[in-house]
Write a structure and sequence with these properties.
By secondary structure, the chain is mostly helical. The protein contains eleven helices and no strands. About 5% of the residues have low confidence.
């Protein structure tokens, strides 16, 4: 029994969300000891090992040197947070700022809702039946995305208009309101992309091969992570740019990144039953022992992956050096792309050669081509994946 493409896709998307820790502004990296360059080519495997040994040595040295800054920052943090908040508000009433912000956002959300309902009517919710053919699904998804985009435009126009009317002067209040309006717009834009791809409430417009529970789960968590990341990082930026000292700045960045990481771990734990059921298939009793072990333990590897990526990111924040986070994101993007490419190729091959035909020779031909194509995909992975991490194969 083959594992459905939806199972691979669900697991890959979970890993993609898990790897996408938001990078934060960093100061220039401290001086490091560099490995000798090879005169010809990559220098061989020994030079690769030497380069990574020196990188680890430099990282350990930098962490030891910066640990004192973090200890000092922990003592400064409460006072720096209070001072940053006072500078951000410039003495304005926090309650008045929050109430005004909520009123503006409430009016903007109402305008978005009215526009979406007027333009889409009952169609926005999407028919519950599944549409046959990519063309019909794509047409529905594009129409829904256009309606969502117009609703997002209405949201932006209302917020800008209300800010111009009630917060006309440049200053702390205007910066405060625009910060959180920007975070709300970023969250709504993420929700738009998620609705376009996943169609959580409209199977007939769903572009990715996922079951309804998986699509709704991924959409809910994608929007949650987008909201946490947008509001968290923009709040940190607002406080940091007010003049917070570097030591407290580092601790605030680490706190927000850790919060996002904990949400990612919660997402993996919450998605465990869905991925396990998808991996085991319709009849778990016929699953191979290897597939059973993967289905029962995949979440452990995913959580370890998230923690390792958080560690790399946190080290780059503390040392103010380059981060490996985008190498991790590219690696998971590759994992997301492979099942999609394989699924699309298989569907096209079945349509061209007629895999449903009863002829044994034709079915054997299709199977051979599928295996050959997967060998090619494996070769692409063996070349691309090491290059993401700076290894010249």
């Amino acid at each position: 029994m083959r594992i459905g493409s939806g199972a691979w896709l669900l697991g890959a998307v979970l890993l993609l969300l898990s790897s996408a820790h938001p990078a934060f502004g960093q100061a220039p990296a401290p001086a490091v000891v560099e490995a000798p360059a090879a005169e010809h080519g990559g220098g061989g495997f020994a030079l690769v090992l030497l380069r990574y040994r020196l990188a680890l040595e430099n990282l350990g040295t930098a962490l030891r040197e910066r640990s004192a800054e973090l200890m000092e920052g922990s003592h400064l943090f409460p006072g720096e947070m209070m001072g940053a908040w006072l500078r951000v508000t410039e003495g304005a009433s926090p309650l008045a700022l929050i109430v005004g912000l909520l009123a503006i956002l409430g009016a903007a959300f109402m305008a978005r809702h009215v526009v979406r309902r007027r333009l889409a009517g009952n169609f926005l919710g999407g028919a519950s039946e599944r549409a046959d053919g990519l063309g019909r699904r794509l047409g529905r998804a594009l129409y829904r995305a256009l309606v969502d985009l117009l609703g997002l435009g209405a949201f932006a126009l209302v917020t800008i208009g209300l800010i111009a009317l009630f917060v006309p002067a440049a200053g702390a209040a205007r910066t405060f309101v625009f910060t959180y309006v920007t975070a709300a717009l970023a969250t709504l834009a993420a929700a738009l992309v998620s609705r376009f791809l996943l169609g959580p409430d409209a199977p007939a417009a769903r572009l990715l091969p996922l079951a309804d529970p998986a699509a709704r789960f991924l959409h809910r968590w994608f929007v949650t992570l987008a909201a946490a990341g947008s509001f968290g990082w923009l709040t940190a930026a607002l406080l940091i740019l007010s003049g917070m000292q570097l030591e407290a700045h580092l601790l605030l960045a680490l706190a927000v990144g850790t919060l996002v990481t904990l949400l990612l771990v919660a997402m993996i734990v919450g998605g465990r039953p869905l991925v396990t059921a998808a991996l085991l298939g319709d009849d778990p009793t016929v699953a191979t022992p290897l597939r059973g072990r993967v289905a029962r333990s995949w979440h452990v590897f995913a959580i370890v992956y998230v923690v390792v990526i958080w560690g790399l990111w946190a080290a780059s924040i503390v040392t103010r050096g380059p981060s490996s986070i985008w190498s991790a994101v590219a690696s998971v993007l590759l994992a997301v792309a492979l099942p999609l490419i394989d699924h699309a190729f298989g569907r096209g091959l079945d349509q061209v050669l007629g895999a449903d035909d009863a002829a044994t020779s034709r079915q054997r031909t299709v199977a051979i081509i599928r295996r050959a194509f997967r060998v090619v995909l494996a070769g692409v992975v063996l070349v691309l994946l090491p290059s993401f991490w700076g290894i010249d194969v």
